[in-house]
Write a structure and sequence with these properties.
The protein is of the alpha+beta class. The protein folds into 4 domains: 93 residues, no CATH class; 88 residues, PAS domain (Beta-Lactamase, 2-Layer Sandwich), CATH 3.30.450; 72 residues, Helix Hairpins, CATH 1.10.287.130; 157 residues, Histidine kinase-like ATPase, C-terminal domain (Heat Shock Protein 90, 2-Layer Sandwich). It has 11 helices and 13 strands. The longest helix is centred in the N-terminal third of the chain and has 37 residues. It is elongated. The structure holds adenosine-5'-diphosphate. The site of adenosine-5'-diphosphate has 23 residues, from helix 9 and helix 11.
């Protein structure tokens, strides 16, 4: 069994003391100078310790030709120190190796990566960033804004912690689309990533264009079919009785198709980036008062309806899409609440911003479906949605419009008890308007 370094050091020191002392004692026995010999031994022992300490210190400082002391516990101490040193060197080698590997991997990444200081000064970048932004090693320490002058990019760079990625079309004069993201990664240092997503972006664009074009193309023929169906339904004398029911059903279905096409076109309009360019101050209180009148007209006899609207509370946004958010949520509340239920609508503000809330005592939504409600054509109960004239696109429209207004939809629901759908608008989007 190997002994511990301390016990080895003590035994070495004792051996050394025993050997050296026996020489001195032999001398004292021969000469009879016991006291002076023992005194000399103590002095000798102290001088040796100081000398060993001096050599140890020189060896530690790596003075040329300095050798470690090789006797007593000093020998063990030097052995332990050099062993520890070797271990540390090995570990440092390993770490160096790993960081070299990591460095090489990030250099080889096809995504452009740039490490920036808090003030956007370039610290480090990989090969992809070098070729995309045409930056050189000598640009290290320069502000990135001085090298990339695209205004939207600079705007994005100046944000504290951007929540969403930025898509840059025609970045640095290239006919490609890049996805730009910035992360805080270490004490305020920031990592900028630029990824070429041209193919994906193009595909998404093609899909959006296709849906918009197809909906647009279908709109006119469907209006014609609908018109003829309405005409035929009105011609009660000329049309045989047998056709009344099929005609009614055809009319109902074509109206449903029309509603879906209208919703698809609304979604395409919302998705187009030009939407927010017509942003203005919307007097939401007035808008909701008008909406209240419409809904009361339709449902006042069948439901308990409450509207609580904060006067003068306005929003910065786009009128039509916002109106469709409010009407979609209120209309859903009625459609998914059995007659006799209660629907409450609130428009209010607090320290966190403005809130539009619709609460109903309806059928509710099981928890596991909540996260999927805003997907296109997602319905918890497809048959029920169709029955009550749903297109499956209402909440998708709500989500897109809210995204464009940097707002969020929060849903709470309990099956059989009811739901609360709430839109939270940031303080920056909220304002007070003069009440008329
Ligand atoms: P739909 O036209 O089918 O109502 P939406 O996009 O408006 O489409 O809503 C998606 C689904 O969310 C609905 O099919 C329904 O299952 C559920 N839902 C929406 N609002 C409510 C509500 N107030 N109460 C219960 N379920 C709701």
């Amino acid at each position: 069994m190997s002994s511990s370094p301390v016990s080895r050091a003590i035994s070495r020191e004792l051996t050394w003391v025993a050997l050296s002392l026996s020489v001195f004692l032999l001398f004292a026995w021969l000469t009879g100078f016991w006291v002076s010999t023992l005194f000399s031994y103590v002095i000798f022992y102290l001088i040796r310790q100081v000398w060993c300490l001096y050599r140890f210190e020189a060896w530690m400082r790596e003075v040329p030709y300095a050798t470690p002391p090789q006797s007593g516990f000093w020998q063990e101490l030097c052995f332990s120190v050099s062993h520890k040193q070797r271990m540390l060197e090995k570990r440092a080698d390993l770490q160096n190796n790993k960081s070299e590997q990591f460095h090489a991997a990030s250099m080889a990444l096809p995504i452009a990566i740039i490490s920036l200081t808090k003030n956007h000064k370039i610290e480090w970048f990989n090969n992809a960033a070098q070729s995309l932004l045409s930056i050189q090693r000598s640009d290290t320490g320069r502000k990135l804004e001085t090298l990339v002058r695209q205004p939207e990019f600079i705007q994005y760079l100046k944000q504290e912690i951007p929540e969403k990625p930025l898509f840059l079309e025609g970045f640095m004069g290239q006919s490609r689309t890049y996805r730009c993201e910035i992360f805080d990664y270490h004490h305020g240092h920031r990592l900028l990533m630029l990824e070429d997503v041209h193919e994906l972006y193009n595909l998404a664009q093609i899909r959006k264009d296709f849906v918009a074009n197809a909906s647009h193309e279908l709109r006119t023929p469907l209006t014609v079919v609908n018109g003829y169906l309405e005409m035929m339904i009105d011609m009660t004398e000329q049309v045989p009785e047998f056709w009344e029911k099929p005609l009614g059903q055809m009319h109902h279905q074509s109206l449903r198709m029309q509603a879906i096409i209208e919703d698809l076109l609304t979604l395409s309009r919302i998705e187009s980036d030009t939407l927010m360019s017509s942003s203005q101050v919307i007097k939401v209180d007035e808008m909701l008062n008008n909406i209240e009148v419409d809904f009361r007209y339709l449902y006042d006899e069948e439901y308990e309806i409450f509207f609580s609207i904060e006067n003068g509370l306005a929003l910065k946004g786009v009128e039509e899409p916002l109106k469709s958010v409010f009407t979609n949520l209120i209309s859903n509340a009625f459609r998914y609440t059995p007659k006799g239920g209660r629907v409450s609508v609130r428009w209010y503000s607090d320290a966190s911003g403005a809130h539009f809330e619709v609460e109903d005592t309806g059928i509710g939504v099981p928890n596991e479906f909540l996260s999927r409600l805003t997907e296109r054509f997602y319905r918890v109960d497809t048959a029920r949605s169709r029955e009550n004239g749903g297109t499956g696109l209402g909440l998708a429209i709500v989500k897109h419009v809210l995204d464009k207004h940097e707002s969020e939809l929060k849903i709470q629901s309990q099956v059989g008890k009811g739901s609360i759908f709430r839109c939270d608008f940031q303080v920056a989007k909220t304002m007070v308007s003069e009440t008329s």
